[in-house]
Amino acid sequence: MTAALHLPDLRDKQDWTTDDLASLPEGLRYELIDGRLILPSPTGIHQKLGYKLTQALEENCPPDHDAVPDYSLAIDRSNEPRPDVVVVHKSVMALTPAPIDRALLLLEIISPTSHFRDMHAKSRVYAAAGVVHYWVVDPTGRGGVTLTAFHPGRTGVYEIVVSTDKVFNTEVPYPITIDLPGLTALRDEYLAARDGA
């Protein structure tokens, strides 16, 4: 006989804090955004794109930083996000969560249920925390996989710097190339396999 896993009623509580996370079972992915607990369940496509994007961000990474997938960041009592890929200073690699001020770049991959959260809720939280480089990759549209790069504007709120489905090349915050048409082909290969099954 197996013991039942008892979770608190997640639907009713809207004011989670980082202290509450300690009471939850280990081994599951948790995020806390504006006091709301999020239990992401990414698809294989999402995870494969995360792997490819981590590789792209590792190339040319400054020697004192590294690209890490699915890494918790400490912001405040109401926010402990887990961006899909983080370029973080090596001095905090042994910490979890890591202080967000040691993150050089955050990247989120949109899933069908996370569009508003990644484009709006998290962007507000990250901008308020002083994150200079925030990118969102969207594989959910009918066209190509897109990348939107945000940068804080004069008021501290993010402004879109670029949004593209072409090969993305930048020198900021360091030389990075992301082959978005290649990611589109990979996504389409998996979708075709699903439809042909």
From TrEMBL:
CDD domains: DUF820-like. InterPro entries: Nuclease_put_TT1808, Restrct_endonuc-II-like, Uma2. One of its GO terms (molecular function) is endonuclease activity. The lineage of its organism: Bacteria, Bacillati, Actinomycetota, Actinomycetes, Micromonosporales. It holds the Pfam family Uma2. It comes from Actinoplanes subglobosus. It comes from the Bacteria. Residues 22-163 form the Putative restriction endonuclease domain. Keywords: Endonuclease, Hydrolase, Nuclease. The keyword Nuclease applies. This is Uma2 family endonuclease.
